[in-house]
C-alpha cells in the first residue's frame, strides 16, 4: 500500500526444473557486475524461497522470492541516496521477464517443515520479508490441491510483525486460507505504528 515502509517485490524465477527445493530452503543470487572497491565479482546473497516446491504456477519449474528493495536515506537530499543502494535487491526488483539470474543452492535444512505427522502444529514468527518461507508453508498446507494438504489436520499459527497495515505481505492469501480453514489456521499481526501493547507502547511481534 501507499504507506508501506519501502518497496517489496514478489519475484517469480523460472528455473526450468533445474533447481528443485523444499519449503523453508533458500536460493543464492549472485548479482551481475563487480564490486567497486576491488573489482571482484559480487558475492552471493541468500533469499528464503517464498513458494512451495511446486511454485506459484504448480509446475515445479518456478520459485518465488520476496525481496525488499534496499535503499539509504540522504539527509542532505531529503531523498534516497542514488549512490547507495543494495546491489542484489535492486537488481532483482528492477528485473523484467527474461532477465537472467545467476543462482546457487538450494540451501538450508533447519527450516524444513516436518511432515511425517499430519497432526503436527506449527508456530511461525516473522517480521517483514521474513514471511517468505512461511508463505511456502501456508500454500503447502492450505492452498494447494495436494495429498499433503488434504492430510493435514493440525493447527498452524502465524505471527507477522510489520510497521502498518499497508506493509502486510500476502494478506489476501492468508485471509483466504483462514476463511477456508478456520480451525486449522490462525493469524496474529503486530502493527508497530498502528497498535499499542499492554504498556501503551508500540506493538511489536514479541508483545504478542
Automatic annotation (TrEMBL):
EC number: 1.18.1.2
Listed Pfam families: NAD_binding_1 (PF00175)
Residue intervals of the FAD-binding FR-type domain: 1-113
Example GO molecular function: ferredoxin-NADP+ reductase activity
Cofactor section: FAD
Superkingdom field: Eukaryota
Database matches in InterPro entries: FAD-bd_FR_type (IPR017927), Flavoprot_Pyr_Nucl_cyt_Rdtase (IPR001709), FNR (IPR015701), FNR_nucleotide-bd (IPR039261), OxRdtase_FAD/NAD-bd (IPR001433), Riboflavin_synthase-like_b-brl (IPR017938)
Catalytic reaction equation(s): 2 reduced [2Fe-2S]-[ferredoxin] + NADP(+) + H(+) = 2 oxidized [2Fe-2S]-[ferredoxin] + NADPH
Entry keyword set: FAD, Flavoprotein, NADP, Oxidoreductase
Family, as annotated: Belongs to the ferredoxin--NADP reductase type 1 family.
PANTHER family registered for this protein in UniProt: PTHR43314
Protein name, entry field: ferredoxin--NADP(+) reductase
Amino acid at each position: 500500500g501507499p504507506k508501506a515502509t519501502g518497496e517489496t517485490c514478489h519475484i517469480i524465477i523460472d528455473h526450468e526444473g533445474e533447481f528443485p527445493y523444499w519449503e523453508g530452503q533458500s536460493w543464492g543470487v549472485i548479482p551481475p557486475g563487480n564490486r567497486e572497491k576491488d573489482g571482484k565479482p559480487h558475492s552471493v546473497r541468500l533469499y528464503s524461497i517464498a513458494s512451495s516446491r511446486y511454485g506459484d504456477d504448480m509446475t515445479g519449474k518456478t520459485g518465488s522470492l520476496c525481496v525488499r528493495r534496499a535503499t539509504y536515506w540522504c539527509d542532505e537530499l531529503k531523498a534516497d541516496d542514488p549512490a547507495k543502494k543494495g546491489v542484489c535487491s535492486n537488481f532483482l526488483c528492477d528485473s523484467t521477464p527474461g532477465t537472467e539470474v545467476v543462482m546457487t543452492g538450494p540451501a538450508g535444512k533447519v527450516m524444513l517443515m516436518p511432515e511425517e505427522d499430519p497432526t503436527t502444529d506449527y508456530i511461525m514468527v516473522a517480521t517483514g520479508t521474513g514471511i517468505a518461507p512461511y508463505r511456502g508453508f501456508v500454500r503447502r498446507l492450505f492452498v494447494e490441491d495436494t495429498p499433503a494438504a488434504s492430510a493435514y489436520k493440525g493447527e498452524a499459527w502465524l505471527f507477522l510483525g510489520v510497521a502498518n497495515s499497508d506493509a502486510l505481505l500476502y494478506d489476501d492469501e492468508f485471509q483466504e486460507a483462514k476463511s477456508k480453514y478456520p480451525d486449522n489456521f490462525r493469524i496474529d499481526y503486530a502493527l508497530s505504528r498502528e497498535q499499542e501493547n499492554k504498556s501503551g507502547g508500540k506493538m511489536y511481534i514479541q508483545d504478542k
